[in-house]
Amino acid sequence: MTSPLLVCGHANVETVLRLDTPALDPAGSVIPEGLSLNVSGVGVNLVRGLRALGSPARLLTLLGDDVAGRAVRAELRGCDLRVVPVRATAQT
Q1: What is the mean pLDDT of the chain?
Q2: Looking at the domain assignment, is residue 86 inside a domain?
Q3: 3-state SS string for the chain
């Protein structure tokens, strides 16, 4: 059995606005068609990729005790990644 790889990297929450126009007009207003929040970051993406390829991998990252930190924890658990609590930072 292969030992798991330890990935040390960050996790973040991306906020994406979907617009109905390709460019913003400084003289006008733009109404977004939607908003999405996505968990990402180099560490998260690398662990997802390694696991998709069948490699055991673990992620070491700092998460805050805030909305973003809770979103990242929920996403990682949803990907069957065990979240081990350590002392949280003030914010993610």
Answers
A1: 83
A2: no
A3: CCCCEEEECCCEEEEEEECCCCCCCCCCCCCCCEEEEEEECHHHHHHHHHHHCCCCEEEECCCECCHHHHHHHHHHHHCCCCCCCCCCECCC
Residue for token pair 């617009």: 19
Q: Nearest-CA neighbor of 60 among 88, 84, 39, 38?
A: 84
Q: How many domains does the chain divide into?
A: 1
Residue 71 in domain:
no
Dihedral angle over CA of 46, 51, 53, 57, nearest 10: 70
| C-alpha distances out from residue 63 to 24, 35, 73, 78, 83, Å | 34, 23, 8, 16, 10
Residue 46 in this model has a pLDDT that exceeds 90: yes
Q: Is the overall model pTM greater than 0.90, yes or no?
A: no
